[in-house]
Amino acid sequence: MAIEYAGVWNRSKMSTEFTRTIDWLAVAYAALYFPVPVYWLLLHPAVNTWRRIGYRSFWIALPVWILIGVPLVLMENFLFAYRLPRNAVTYCLGAALLVLTLWISRRVHQEFSFKKLAGLPELNPAHPHRGIVDKGIYAWVRHPRYANMMLGFIAFGLLTGAAGIFLLAIVTFLLYLIVTPLEERELREQYGSEYEIYARAVPRFLPRLRRKWRKSS
Question: What is the value of pTM for the model shown?
Answer without folding.
Answer: 0.83
